[in-house]
Amino acid sequence: MIEISNLVKFYGDKRAVNGISFTVNQGEILGFLGPNGAGKSTTMNIITGYLSATSGKVTINGYDILEQPELAKRNIGYLPELPPLFMDMTVIEYLQYVAELKMVPKGERKKQISDIMKMVHIGNVSGRLIHNLSKGYRQRVGIAQTLIGNPEVLILDEPTVGLDPNQVIEMRKLITSLAKTHTIIFSSHILSEVQAICDRIVIINQGKIVADAPTLELSAKVEGTVQYLLVVDAPFKNVQMQLRAIPNVKNVTLLAENNGLSQIQVSADSSLDVRKSIFFALSRISVPMLEFRSLEPSLEEVFTNITSPKK
Question: In a 3-state reduction of DSSP, which class is residue 163?
């Protein structure tokens, strides 16, 4: 559905995007992440046709964004970080204007706008000036304009900015439901949202792709250390020496101790599986294990590990 091939963008002598390639499949929600200055916004602007690339190719549903811009853009709904709203229009006037710009057939506009307003819960403010809306409602209006014309590809840059926690949950559900009929690129600095919504994540840094993996597999990008959580029926002082003596265990940390139970985090070198060694070490001193599980790193930890400057 979306194909990016060897994309390069220069600003003067600065190479902002450095030969990146990836695809987004139909019905997929792709998280597109990167630290400030990584080239993420430049890439999204090229995908939408707002900027031209120095070299490389972007196709949307088979249409080249440079060679066939009108056909390609008909397939795109774009919500930039700052929604393109006209503050002196009412919500309904603005959406009618967008429908006209997108050449939605006149006979379909009224129903399409009505359906979209219900979907994003803005029907109750349809007659109000956008200038008088809260930031959260303005964001919803921005999402509504993205959906007009029923584009097959949605590119959403920070779509939950300004929404309260309940609205964020509603928006997550909406984005997930839209994936049934749309292909979505989703970008946010709130990484827990990306982790909750996206099927796959691409991380860009210094103009290059540094990670591209299904969300559930991305933790493998944190190399070198694995974390385990243990709950044992014994005081921490009774087990810490035995656990620290296990080869490849790097650190043993007490997280909580209550009613004789100890919750412990064990960090170990990922080159050797230490789970059996932990089990037998505690068995030798007759300490029952009530819980033992791997701790997957959060997306925040993965992102920091991948994008932080290496010492």
Answer: coil
Residue 95 DSSP class = H
Q: Are residues 18 and 29 in the same domain?
A: yes
Q: How far apart are CA 192 and CA 181, in angstroms?
A: 24
In whole angstroms, what is the distance from residue 87 CA to residue 129 CA? 7
Q: What's the predicted TM-score (pTM) here?
A: 0.77
Tokens of 294: 């791997």
Whether residues 201 and 187 share a domain: the answer is yes
Please state the domain count of the chain: 2
216 and 297 Cβ atoms separated by less than 8 Å: no
- Residue 214 and residue 232 share a domain: no
Strand partners, 9: 17
CB atoms within 10 A of CB 88: 10
**How does DSSP classify residue 67?**
T
Q: Which of 178, 193, 220 is the last residue of a domain?
A: 220
Triad 100, 106, 112: Cα angle to 5°: 80
Sign of the alpha-carbon torsion through 268, 270, 271, 277: positive
Domain finish residue from 220, 254, 283: 220
pLDDT tens digits along 97-150:
999 999 999 999 999 999 999 988 999 999 999 999 988 899 899 999 999 999
Do 178 and 253 have their domain in common?
A: no
Domain with 84 in it: 2-220
CB atoms within 10 A of CB 2: 24
Interval 78-101: pLDDT, tens? 998 888 899 999 999 999 999 999
Residue 250's contacts (CB-CB under 8 Å, 6 or more residues apart) are 225, 267, 268, 269
